[in-house]
Write a structure and sequence with these properties.
six-stranded mixed sheet; two-stranded antiparallel ribbon; globular; 6 helices
Length: about 240
């Protein structure tokens, strides 16, 4: 259904880093940019490949957000643990002791000074997972985004959203191309899955806008904090990864 105004979705991937000379998320983003057509559905998509460096990744993402002004951001990265799409359900305010693409190791300190220890996504993971599974694309919920650049980018994106920025989600995908790893998806399926996730993100944004219009609020969210993050016991759902 064509909408009266475009929903803008930014999709990012990462470049190579130690141990992963060919990053599948970079290939995914570049293929999505050339193959996917969203205009008929009222969706405008922009893509960016981010450097895997502690100093530049967040800056590059912030520049892409400032230039495109998206309603939602889908960050993609790779994980050697992943066999399918893994939708991350939280980000932690800490960086790990792993060298980036330039060999730099970040100091063991919070990513955002005085920031919350954990942040939950503003695009509901279960909404994204259900959209993928309806199309028979393997997808899981993860509650461990690691302590590398993926987690760092995710946390800072969610912190930005708290200041009125776009809704955000992070998706890990398999490394792909390594015969020693067991992946349940191919690159073709990954691109199809990314298209589905863009559509699902646009639906969440549109729903949030409609909810805001009904409630007369100036800011909007999609309600995902209560949709996916906490069970009756107050603990995060999903199985631990890594």
């Amino acid at each position: 259904m064509k909408r009266a105004y475009p929903i803008r979705v930014l999709v990012t991937g990462f470049g190579p880093f130690p141990g992963v000379p060919h990053n599948a998320s970079e290939t995914l983003v570049r293929l999505l940019a050339t193959q996917a057509q969203f205009g008929a559905n009222g969706i405008e998509v922009s893509t960016a490949v981010l450097p895997v460096t502690w100093e530049s990744a967040h800056k590059a993402a912030s520049s892409a957000v400032a230039a495109f002004a998206p309603d939602a951001v889908l960050h993609f990265g790779v994980s050697r643990r992943a066999t399918a799409f893994e939708i991350e359900s939280r980000a932690v305010n800490m960086c790990g002791q792993r060298p980036d693409a330039h060999g730099r190791i970040a100091p063991p300190m919070p990513l955002v000074r005085a920031g919350k220890p954990l942040l939950a996504p503003t695009l509901a993971p279960l909404h994204l997972i259900r959209a993928l599974r309806r199309a028979n694309v393997p997808a899981e919920l993860s509650r461990n985004a690691g302590r590398y650049l993926c987690n760092a980018l995710y946390y800072r994106s969610l912190a930005r959203e708290g200041d009125g920025g776009p809704l955000a989600a992070f998706i890990h995908m398999p490394v792909l191309g390594d015969p020693s790893l067991r992946s349940r998806i191919t690159m073709t399926q990954a691109v199809d899955g990314a298209r589905i996730l863009v559509q699902a993100a646009a639906e969440a944004v549109l729903r949030a806008k409609r909810q805001t219009a009904r409630q007369g609020r100036r800011r909007y969210r999609d309600g995902s904090q209560t949709f996916h993050r906490l069970g009756r016991s107050g603990g995060p759902v999903g199985r631990e990864r890594g």
